[in-house]
Amino acid sequence: MSTQRVSLVRRFAMLAYSLSFLGSFLFFWWPLLVFDHFYDMPWLIPFNTFIALPLLDAVLGEYRYNWCVEEHKWLKQQRWLRALPLLAVPLFFVYQWLMAGYFLQAEAWYQKVGWVLTAGIAGGVMAINIGHELIHRRSKLEQRAGGLLLASVAYGSFKVEHIYGHHTWVATPKDMTTAPKGMTVYRFWWRALTHTPVKAAQIARERAHKQGRKVHELWLLYGISAVCLVAYIVALGVQVAGFWIAHCLVAILLLETVNYIEHYGLLRQQKDAGKYEPITHHHSWNSSRLLTNIVLFNLQRHSDHHAFASRNYPMLRHFDDSPQMPQGYATMILMSLLPTLWFNVMNRRLDSLSAP
Question: Is the pTM of this model over 0.85?
Answer without folding.
Answer: yes
